[in-house]
Amino acid sequence: MAGQPDVQRARPRKAALAAWIGSALEYYDFFIYGTAAALVFGKIFFPSSSPAAGTLLALSTFGVGYVTRPLGAILLGHMGDRFGRKRVLVLTLLLMGASTVLVGCLPSYHTAGITAPILLVALRLLQGLSAGGEQASANSMSLEHAPENRRAYYTSFTLSGTQAGQIIATAVFLPVAALPQADLLAWGWRIPFFASALMVLAGYLIRRTLEETPVFEREVRSGEVAKMPLAVLLRDHWADVLRVIVAALIASVSTIFTVYALSYAVNTVGLSKTPMLWVGVLANIAAVVTIPLWAKLSDRLGRKRLFIAGSLGCAVLIFAYLGAIAAGSWTWIFVVGVLMFGVVYTATSAVWPAFYGEMFPARVRLSGTAIGTQIGFAISGFLPTLAAGIAGDGKGAWLGVSIFTAALCLVNVIAVASGRETFRVPTAKLGLKDPKARVPQEAVAP
User: Which of the four pLDDT bands, split at 50, 70 and 90, describes residue 296?
Assistant: First the structure.
């Protein structure tokens, strides 16, 4: 049929758009929690503690969300590999949206006592459960719809969507943070959480119209769908799971930049919170632009060299960024912050959605990507708390945090360097022990 090629060409774009929009909405919810934890939750839910202890406890609740990410990865990864990618994409969006709106409904510690922080932690656990399957599902959907020579480009829209979500979250918090302190603590902090309801509705309407991937549909027709994806994954692909876990520690740069640096600047150094929020906005605007550019370059040059270059760059720039904050130099805070997070770090975030997914065959791709990344992210998610403990109350303690983060970047480099290059492997042969083996025609037919 004459229209069939046009339909096939449109599917990758539609999948990428749905992944971008859904991820933006999903991570809007996730990032507004991080911003609120850094700025107000210590006073609202832990007022009996000292300011430093209250901030530490609030940041701990941010890290708690990462505890259920691996569990979400196992459950939602199983569902996605058994029943399809689309079903998981809709479920994660609704789960994140409901838990986020409910955070905005919570009473303060002064109103409900210890019940308030307990409910906060419970909802944060639900957010983490949802996030455990979100990116892997979106990445699998985009990768399996994409042309073979443009897999990094199409999957990168998932990550540029997360950056857009952070832009929206920060932009919403800018006027809220400018409210008088009494109004901010009384009701202002709730506005971003309530606003997510409309965004989640829009995301649901988009994702429900997606078509399942041709790759998964062929798995169903050929009877190759794994009944127990986790068992197959751990039996045949455990080394790649471990590699993804270690490689995913690069997310420590994001958590340090997003949560710890903001808290350190405002609560320890005494800088104004509004300009610090603008650093995040500008860095993420740059990231939305650079992510697809790095991804296009990865489709030409490969995954590993860009990933390694980005990791090494972050290992150096983290010293400059936290040092600029400690010195109170706004010029260098903006310049280095945008350069590190908006340009250099994106060389890794543009590549990993394709790189991690390409390590696994279709029958365990969602499980492998989700479990590997979410365990790595879970470790990285507690780093703001650990960093706050290292830094203490002293302005000069930033150096220890920088050394710690740089060391994680170097460990990440070792993991990536040990992996095989995947950008030229045909989609049907991804994750196979012998990529040169003949693949049945059913597996490659459009």
Answer: very high
